[in-house]
Amino acid sequence: MSMGTVGFGEFFEAVTGHQPYVWQSRAAAALVAGVPVGTIAAPTGMGKTSLVLAWVWALARDLDRQAIEGGPRRVALRYVSVIDRRVVVDATADLARGLAEMFTTALASPAAVPEPVVEVARVLNRLAPDAAGPLEVRVLRGGMDSRPEGPRHPAAATVLVGTIDLVGSRLLWRGYGVSRGRRPIDAAMVGADSLIVLDEAHLAAQFHTTLAVLDRQTAAEPGLAGIPARQLVTMTATPEDPADVFDWAAEIERNPAVATRQHHRRAMTVELASSTGKAETAMKDWLKKTALERQCIVCFFNTATAARDAAKILTARKDLDGRAVLLLVGGMPDLARTQAMDALAPYLSGASPQQRATATPVVICATQTLEVGADLDADMLITPIASVAALTQRLGRVNRIGARPDGHILLFAGTDPDPVYSDAHTIAAALTRHHPATAGDLTDQLTALPTTGTGVTAVLPRHVFDAYLATAGSPNEPDVGRWLRTPQDERTQLQVVFRESVRDLTDDQTLCDHLLRWPPRPEEIWTIAGNGQDLVWPSATKTLRAVVIDTADSRPPRVLTHRPHPRPGEVYVLAPAPAEKMGMPGFELVKLSV
């Protein structure tokens, strides 16, 4: 077998054990031909993460064609996946690492790996024989056990997975946590010879705009010889453009089992509970009094405080008969998040029916952190009315791939305005009028409703971008964060660690020396969204004492006595405060999650 005879279906099945979906095959064909893919509108559970397999196969086929026919390369050397949820960053990275390990094994022991994988590995290895392996995988996100680092080998095929802040800042030559001397290297590694895949693009309107502006500004400029231009692919399960319709007919024609799965998901029962006051209050009352019969129940809340309160209510119940209670909110330290996800392993879509049947029953209280990409496959979903996009994503966490002919959805609608979703009241009124009985009815009604805008996006002026090209920077330049997120986007992140030493060590230098010797570990780092930062800093500035640690090591730790303007890439160490004073789950969350 040679690379020229390895079809995408053969390669995909060799890696995953099953044939690709039609949309995946179409994407692979477009990539290998050098044709822009554009937007991929694939529903939940239809394998969007596996687009990386289409890219790696297309790159290998293109390199083989180039070796035989000559001419410029059509497929980018680097696959840059940008996802604004840490749990999805890790899931995508795990898939890429598994692929990289398979390639390494293919070179060392070809007989142990399917032949299509061996051929792809051999072609990729010719790119950079001195690299660590045929495929390099790097992760850029907060809360890691070492400083996030971009690609190491400029000639190696690379999968780079990261969050908007860490990938976007590098693209704009101001990488968070990156030294000045490293800025142009990281900018080139991210921005040149790359296929940028923006997952759930509706959550990243400002970054999407910035990418589009940069591409327009550079389109008329001469590119690098032999290197394909940067290409942007957007992926979403909730497309805003009516033209981006998923081709169910083609998928069912290739695999009739898809029709059964689709039927199971659309047939799930829906119940709408209306009440006066706050929807989340009604949810908590329901959880306090109602018998929990389903094995895996996921309860979404629109605020972290409500999720924490619900978890407390459930743990206080005496009639749960051993049912586990898990709390999952955004920004959890790795230790708590990993332990919680390990407990949910039997309820992920890849688990066997036997694993699920023998697992401990569980109820999960979660915020938006589980909406996107999490592979949870619950039996019942309970949620207050939220935005159209949020509800669509939450529906994807129950009977996720339609493997079972059951599933139940309970929606709560209140009369009070929602603190997060301004359109929740309008959506609740529409659903109350039509009263959907099944998930299919609910999905159709949500699709017909208008979506809420994500705020006004700013256009990056060319002269501002040109100013960023000066590596040293200027104190008068605008922070690149403005081009990554809208001012209305409250997901801008702050990394916080709580240490008793901040209170106990009164001498500033002693405290800084102590933190240099015992620096923060990822297991204890909280990543707090913008809407929670006001609750982190003490309201009385005279009581503030914190240490800021620059992860780029460009300056030593320093003690702050006034509220700073936080920059991503910095870690703030504060004395622990009671969770109720912070308004955050705090250490109570960790206790509930383990």
Structure report:
It is a single chain. The protein has 594 residues and is of the alpha/beta class. The radius of gyration is 24 Å and the shape is globular. It folds into three domains: 238 residues, P-loop containing nucleotide triphosphate hydrolases (Rossmann fold, 3-Layer(aba) Sandwich), CATH 3.40.50; 185 residues, Rossmann fold (3-Layer(aba) Sandwich), CATH 3.40.50.300; 96 residues, no CATH class. Helix 4 packs across helix 5 and helix 15 runs antiparallel to helix 17. The chain contains 23 helices and 17 strands. The strands form three sheets. Strands 1-6-5-2-4-3 form a six-stranded parallel sheet, with helices on both faces. It has a six-stranded parallel sheet with strand order 7-12-11-8-10-9. 45% of the residues are buried.
End-to-end Cα distance, whole Å, is 50 Å
Q: At CATH's second level, what is the architecture of the largest domain?
A: 3-Layer(aba) Sandwich
Going by CATH, the homologous superfamily of the largest domain would be P-loop containing nucleotide triphosphate hydrolases
Task: Briefly note the CATH topology name of the largest domain.
Answer: Rossmann fold
**Beta strand count:** 17
**Radius of gyration using CA atoms only:** 24 Å
Chain-averaged pLDDT: 84
Assembly state (oligomeric):
single chain
Shape: globular
Characterize the biggest β-sheet: 6 strands, parallel
Strand order of the largest sheet: 1-6-5-2-4-3
Overall number of structural domains: 3
How many helices?
23
Helix content: 25-40%
* Approximate strand percentage: 5-15%
CATH top level of the largest domain? Alpha Beta
The parts where pLDDT drops under 50 for at least 5 residues are 579-594
| Structural class estimated from helices and strands | alpha/beta
